[in-house]
Every structure is written in structure tokens, then in C-alpha cells.
């Protein structure tokens, strides 16, 4: 019976009930969310470039299809990573210290969904910016200073980094 | 839908449930409350869909507290009070490689 369900799972992909994300491993870093947001923005730029082209070849359409798929996957990853930090790492004390964080997280969820629904690069820029704000708050809760620098790769936009060492 | 089939992911329910097990859940009617010791699947507002064991139920039967089976699990305090409306269902059956069991 187990084998049968396993087979069914591999075909239709059953929903998961988590017994794992709640290990209190204390390993949290908003950069995974920032990286996902940067990827979304990059994909939106590449989609925008394709949009400027008067005729799309089959190869272009295949690229477009991959870009859209990856954009949606990375937007969902950004949501998941932010949710994990906000839901697990932030306790009442951190929320009391930074009461704006819950509203910010809600805005990030909405912006990431807009990135999935549409192809406007402005939504991607907004997502990067909001997740930067989130990263800054997160590092403040760890008493780690941050600085802003342009990421040394496309989409070459300002990113909040922790000042370590 | 009242019935659900889920894949367990992770180790916080060991030894009762292993990573990769499948479980069948059944949503109880509002008249039937959940009881201490029940294993439930729930949609936690910040932590997503979880599988946990009920540790206590308040007098009204509307809220309960639950946690995992071992020290790797998040504490009841961190999970907070769980509203019965967040519960997807009680786990009735477990499918493991080589060991299927009814969950009481």
C-alpha cells in the first residue's frame, strides 16, 4: 500500500504536512530571500527585453516560458523564506522592538504575488526594496550593523548586507 | 473535503511518524471535539501545514495546544493557541514502508 501511495505521490504530488521546519536550529539569514527577489527582478528584466523584440522565434518563446516559470518559483521562494524568518525567528520581543515588521511582511507577500501575476519590472524592484528593509530589521534584532551596496551582478541594484567581521 | 492524504516531512514526530510516511486525516464535525493525544494536521498561520499531537484542549473545546513528539519540535509556546478552525483533521491512518497502522 505504501508503494502505491508513493507512486501516486510521484505522479500527482501530494500535499506535505511539516514536521521539520520547526527544529529550532537558529540558522536564519534573509539573504536567501534577497537572492530570490534579485532573481525575480532579473527575470522580469529579461522578459521585458523579449517584449521589446518585434518577432519571437520558437527559441525566444522557449526562453520566455522558462523565464516565467523561474520568476514564479523564485517569487514563491522569497515568500517562503521571509515567512520562515518572520514566523520562526521573530518572537514577541522582536516584534515589540520592530512593530512595523508584520505590516512589512504582509506587503512583501502582496508584492511577491504581484510579481507572479504580472511582468512589470517595477514590482520586482519593489520586492527587492521591501526585502532589503526586512533584512535590515532582521540584522538589527541580531545587533549586526548593515550597509547598502550595489550587487556586483545583474540586476545591479542596491542590496542590504550585514557588516560582519 | 473531509478526508486528506499527506506526506510527512521531517523528524519532529519521531518515533510515531517518520519522514516520508503518508497519513490519512479526517476532519471532524464541529460537534466532535479534538482530544488530548490526538494527532492532527493543521494549517498554522505562520508556520504552514504541520502535523502535531494535541497536548491539551481548553474547556470550551474551541482551542487547543499541540506539539511534536520529541525535543526537535517547536515548543507549544511558540506554536501558540490553535483554533479548531485551523485544524485540517485528525490523523487516522499511517502508511510506512513495511508498517501500516491505525492511529488511535
Count every beta strand of chain A, where a strand is a DSSP E run of 2 or more residues.
3
Largest sheet of chain B: 8 strands, antiparallel
The shape of chain B is globular
Let me know the number of strands of chain B: 8
How many helical elements of chain B? 1
Quaternary structure: heterodimer
Summary keywords:
heterodimer; A: 165 residues; mainly alpha; two-stranded antiparallel sheet; flat; B: 104 residues; mainly beta; 8-stranded antiparallel β-sheet; 1 helix; 4% helix; globular
Description:
The complex is a heterodimer of chains A (165) and B (104). In chain A, α2 packs antiparallel against α3. Chain A has a two-stranded antiparallel ribbon. Chain A is mostly helical and 165 residues long. The longest helix of chain A has 32 residues. Chain A starts with a helix and ends with a strand. Chain B has 104 residues and is mainly beta. Helices cover 4% and strands 47% of the residues of chain B. Chain B is built from 1 helix and 8 strands. In chain B, strands 1, 2, 3, 4, 5, 6, 7 and 8 form an 8-stranded antiparallel sheet that branches. In chain B, β3 and β4 form a beta hairpin. The chains are: A mainly alpha (165), B mainly beta (104). Chains A and B meet through α1, β1 and α3 of A and β1 and β4 of B. β1 of chain A pairs parallel with β1 of chain B.
Indicate the topology.
The complex is a heterodimer of chains A (165) and B (104).
Chain A: H1 2-12, E1 15-18, H2 31-52, H3 58-89, H4 92-97, H5 101-117, H6 121-141, E2 146-150, E3 158-162
Antiparallel strand pairs in A: 2-3
Helix pairs in contact in A: 2-3, 2-6, 3-5, 5-6
Chain B: E1 3-9, E2 22-26, E3 39-44, E4 48-57, E5 63-67, H1 76-79, E6 82-83, E7 87-96, E8 99-102
Antiparallel strand pairs in B: 1-2, 2-7, 3-4, 3-7, 4-5, 5-6, 7-8
